Amino acid sequence: MFGRALLAAAALALGARAEDGWKRIEIDLPAGAPAPDAMAVAKALGVTEEGGPGKRGLRVMVKKVDGATRLQLDILGVAVGADAADKLRAAFPGLKDARIAVGDVPEGEAPAIKVEGTSDPAEIKRQIEEKLAAEGKTADVDVEVDESQGKKRIKVKVEAVDEE
After folding, report:
1. 159 - beta bridge partners?
2. Distance between CA atoms of 3 and 151, rounded to whole angstroms?
3. 145 or 48, greater pLDDT
4. CA–CA dist 132, 113 (Å, integer)
5. How many C-alpha atoms does 100 have within 13 Å on its Cβ side?
6. Measured between alpha carbons, how far is 96 from 94 in angstroms, rounded to an integer?
């Protein structure tokens, strides 16, 4: 059904669960309407690359069907209120006619690729690719680990082709 899907996870809280507080924002744009930059949307909602205390995560999916676009952001560790749609429309005038829904990520849909006992980028990549392969999926996985300023930040980007 969907020709191409992009999944990108930045500062991903590997192994997080839905009950950890994942919020979902869905933006449905009409056919031909340009989608705003997903990271700009995330930043408008308060997501930063600096992270903070506790688990933090972001998963972005872009799906195109018959020219229409759905931008879906799943966010962990940032308070996303009921006013999120108004904030996004104010920040991105092109979203005035878009359907914007805000809610919890349904049980079982939160990003949950758990990486065991490592912060080595090559090992994280290997574990993620192995788990995706076990589900019959292939993807390009890019992992960066930043341990500056006394903090550890893991940035994971996964790009996959959805053949449904």
Report:
1. 140
2. 38
3. 145
4. 9
5. 23
6. 6
Instruction: State the average pLDDT over residues 131-154.
Output: 79
Task: Name the residue ranges covered by the structural domains of the chain.
Answer: 5-159
Contact between 23 and 103 (Cβ < 8 Å): yes
Tokens for 28, please give them. 């449905």
Q: Comparing C-alpha atoms, which of 92, 100, 76 is closest to residue 37? A: 92
Which among 4, 18, 24 has a CA at the least distance from the CA of 84? 24
What are the residues whose beta carbons fall under 8 Å from the beta carbon of 123, sequence distance 6 or more? Answer: 115
DSSP 40-97: HHHHHTT--TT--SS--EEEEEEEEETTEEEEEEEEESS---TTHHHHHHHH-GGGTT
Q: Which two tokens stand for residue 40?
A: 């700009």
φ, ψ for residue 33 (rounded to 5)? -75, 135
**Most confident of the ranges 12-16, 19-23, 88-92:** 88-92
The answer, yes or no, to whether residue 2 has pLDDT greater than 50, is: no
Taken in order 144, 160, 75, 92, the sign of the CA dihedral is: positive
What contacts 86, CB < 8 A, 6 or more positions away? Answer: none
